[in-house]
Amino acid sequence: MTVRTCAAAAAILASAGCGASSTESTPKNLPPVNVQASSLKSGFATMDRLVEAAKREGQLNVIGLPRDWVNYGEVIDTFADKYGLKVNELEPGASSKRELDAAAQLKPDVFDLTLDMAVQKAGSFAPYKVQGWQDLPDDVKDPSGAWYAAYGGYMSIGYDPHAVKPPASFADLLKPGYRVALDGDPLRSASGFGGVMAASMRSGVPHPEQGVALFAKLKQAGQLTEPAKANVIVAWDHLNAARSAAKPEDWKVTIPRDAPLGGYHVQAINKAAPHPAAARLWQEFLFSDEGQNLLQKGWARPARGEAMLMKGTLDTEQAGKMPKAPGPPVLMTIPQADAAKAYLKKEWPKSVG
30: Cβ–Cβ under 8 A, 6 or more apart, which residues? Predict the structure, then answer.
């Protein structure tokens, strides 16, 4: 992902085996169903025919979808009830890398991945362009349809307002009284890595050494701790917003003006999906107005949000409750992320441990 295309996508976050046969007896003037098709129009002609093909398969295998992550529990249940399909939830806690590493063994139909992992493994996915394809910015979708962003968010600082003053920047976390936690190990967790990168931002450019240095100082001062003991948690804003929604007086969320780091999670269909029609139906549902609003209900920022706002289909009441963004996000390029990961792999164990 380039700097130029990163800028194009920023507006979205700121705004709010046992499969069916490839042919069947078809109505007059409609082509045969092709469950491996790259679009609804080319493979099914209508949503009804896609639904019929998915129902014949009877089930869908998802992986790496915790039910408390961006409202996926309600998303999965709504999809299952709407279409009468059984959803098999494989390894809900799997990381993006684990999802891909386990694909041959567990046989998921679909993936939910960080952008960098999707780019690396694009050849493993079956191209498919959902009906809302044109609503997605060019830089958060593969031109061939191999992967495409469903939702995104900002890296944020969540804090206990009874214990500390609202931090205006990451530098404020070095002040006495702040007990700070990352949302995971930055060498293994995308959220933990994003926290270090947000702290590293200077004029929209990541400087990994500065992010590591800040957390090293926190560690040396005895202020770096685990989430259960923290009065500050650095995490994606949808995670901190969910905490705040549960206890609005006890947890607040801020996105520092000097470090508006953003990120997307993208969707992809397994090229070896055992239920290819159900996989395509899942994508159509996730990117429908209903699916996108359900993700926003989980405090994620829907990838089609800007277009839905213009069309009047976005849940504006929920959008108004989202943590306030200071402006368009900074989206790291793949080379920037790769360089930062290499630096952290070498320096984090020595400096922070």
Answer: 45, 46, 49
Give the number of domains in the chain.
2
Written as six digits, the tokens of 274 are 């055992």
This prediction has a pTM of 0.89
Query: 187-213, pLDDT tens digit by residue?
Result: 999 999 999 999 999 999 999 999 999
pLDDT of residue 18: 42
Burial (0-12, 13-18, 19+ Cβ within 10 Å), 319: middle
What 3-state class would DSSP assign to 254?
strand
- The CATH number for 61's domain is 3.40.190.10
Strand, coil or helix: 262: strand
First to last CA, the chain: 31
Cα–Cα dist 264/244, whole Å: 22
pLDDT band with cut points at 50, 70 and 90 for residue 12 = low
DSSP for 293-320, please give it: HHHHHTT-EETTHHHHHHHT-S-HHHHT
Domain membership of residue 352 (yes or no) is no
Q: How far apart are CA 274 and CA 279, in angstroms?
A: 9
Give the DSSP per-residue string, 89-157.
Answer: EE-TT--HHHHHHTHHHH--SEEEEEHHHHHHTGGGB---B-TTGGGS-GGGB-TTSS-EEEEEEEEEE
Residues 165 and 234 in one domain: yes
Tokens 């922070």, located at residue: 352
Tell me the average pLDDT of the chain.
92
pLDDT, position 5 = 42
| Closest residue by Cα to residue 180 from 240, 243, 109, 228 | 228
Q: Are residues 236 and 283 in the same domain?
A: no
Q: From CA 24, how far away is CA 44, in angstroms rounded?
A: 11
How much is the average pLDDT of 248-263?
Answer: 95
Q: Which of 148, 200, 217, 155 shows the shortest CA–CA distance to 339?
A: 200
Strand pairing of 330-331 and 261-269?
parallel
State mean pLDDT over 10-21.
49
Is residue 214 located within the same domain as residue 315?
A: no
- Higher-confidence residue of 232 and 12: namely 232
CA gap 146, 255 in Å, rounded: 31
